[in-house]
Amino acid sequence: MKTFLQFALFMLIAFVVILMAITLGEVGAWYFAWLIGTTMIVLIAAAGGMLLDAQDEQAARKAAAAARHD
Amino acid sequence: MHDPSVVDLSRLQFALTALYHYLFVPLTLGMSFMLAAMETVYVVSGKAIYKQIAQFWSKLFLINFALGVATGLTMEFEFGTNWSFYSSFMGDIFGTPLAIEGLMAFFLESTFVGLMAFGWDRLKRGQHLAVTFLVALGSNLSALWILIANSFMQNPEGAHFNPVTLRMELTSLPDLIFNHDAQAKFVHTSIAGYVTAAIFVAGVSAWYLLKNRHVELARRSFRMAALFGVLATAGVITLGDALGFIGGQAQPTKLAAMEGLWKTEQAPMPFNAIAFPSQKDHVNYGVIQVPYALSLLVTHSLDGTVPAIDELERTAAERIRNGIPAVSALQVLSAKPGDADALAQFQAHEKDLGYGFLVQRYAPDVTKATEADIAAASRDTIPQVAPVFWSFRAMVVLGLCMLAFFVLALIYTMRNNVERQRWLLKIAVCMIPVPFIANETGWLVAELGRQPWTVYGVLPTWMSASTHSLGYMIFSLIGFVSLYTVFIVIEMYLMVRTIRRGPDDEHAPSPSIEPQAARLAGQAEG
Question: What is the pLDDT of residues B352-393, one digit of tens each?
């Protein structure tokens, strides 16, 4: 249920974002938008990879601490 | 007069080569920037796993790149061989972006792709990353110039017809480059490539996770693909709307076909979610409508209307009548270029010259065109509605499916337990063909919807083809289909073989973190 609610919320956010982008204008400076958007997509994807490493390290630290505690 | 079968076969040949080529292109466009993202993490973090990730995916990129180039080269020659009148009529405009594409973008990507493939041990990390970004930029700039050329065919701006040289001539390079259709189409197409690459990487990574192979590589690749894909899909949908709006203004017949609009209706107009359009009867069968939605989607208001096919045919008939004097004046000018009366007549009617050409198919001497000829030519201005209508819907539905998939993938990968969601991983593998189908249907909407024109409102398709024999066309069509099918088989074989083998074991890194077991144990404790 939690996952479904999260999914619904994220889909709603996606639709709101798309709707906002659409209503902001059809004839935009799309070449410029591509430059900015591509840079953002590349950097966010890269940050996602690094975040996964951080999550793994945190989990490993927790596991080590729990083992010491036992 | 062209043999209609030769024109149809020329169209079929171009469509098939373009559709084959377009199976490779989007993956190249997107994968190049995904590689840049992966390598960025390697350069920033210094972790060997990311070098392994970038090297593995770059192998798949290179296979796809090589076959994409091979299938693309023939298409440029096809303009000269099968579309010689088009090339002569439009060469000044069409040749410019294609030449820039070859000299600037293709040389850029071709030069640096070698450094990217063989420079891992010869370049510093930062230098190699710069090379990867240049390959990505070159690939996408290549798409940019080709789409600028294509957009002139969809929405001709920045050129005029010279009645003395009997050719279109470029009047403004900035108008050609900054054509609104070109801007929206480039971004839509480029980002659709990002979505394709993201689905491909997520799907292959999911397959590894299902097989419990190369898990550390697959988890990271899946995470990056999910983020890359969710942002790109939102961008594709946004730009799709912009392209629909711009295309709808420039090509109302395409918009009417996309929406299956036969009869003019009052606002707010309903959206035909499902319908079975009949070209013969000019009606839709089995219609399921969403009230008000079309006005909202297309005009973003409840009182906006969209011209329907009945109205567009009436407008076309008027323009054909106005174009007939332009064509007859042009015939005089081609024999006597200095004829002032003919020039004045031409200039008075030149905006509808293309429509005059349309009726020439039925009345070679346009001055003798009957009302029946004009009616037939005006009916020709409407593209085949059913394939455009359904291709558009397939593209949209598949786009929304991909958005939903990426949102789900993002939820689970951010929770860091995607490898335990076997149902999602199976869906991810099944999703691999989806963006390729969506890309192909998008191409069909754009190009079938442009008919009966090669250059919208200027040059009809029936005039554009070369005058080959039927036998030549059949022979070359079979040749292209056979050769390209071999290319597809080679691509599939190499891709599957490389994926099955996985990353090179000799480069297997020692992850700087505790692998899977400790992480999952930590989660269980948590």
Answer: 999 999 999 999 888 899 999 999 999 999 999 999 999 999
The three-state secondary structure class of B99 is: helix
pLDDT (tens digit, 9 = 90+) per residue, B178-232? 999 999 999 999 999 999 999 999 999 999 999 999 999 999 999 999 999 999 9
Do B470 and B9 touch, CB atoms closer than 8 A?
yes
Q: How far is CA B73 from the centre of its chain?
A: 17
Interchain contact A19–B (C-beta under 8 A): no
Q: Which of A2, A32, A40, A53 to mutate to test the interface with B (most CBs of B within 10 A)?
A: A53
pLDDT at B17: 92
User: Count of CB contacts below 8 A, A vs B?
Assistant: 152
The CA distance from B373 to B141, in Å, is 44
* CA neighbours closer than 13 Å in the CB half-sphere of residue B490: 15
Note whether B325 and B355 are within 8 A (CB): no
Would the CA dihedral through B244, B248, B254, B256 be positive or negative?
Answer: positive
Surface of B (238-257) touching A: CB under 8 A: 238-239, 241-242, 245-246
A43: contact with B, CB 8 A cutoff: yes
Cβ-count burial of A68 within 10 angstroms (0-12 exposed, 13-18 middle, 19+ buried)?
A: exposed
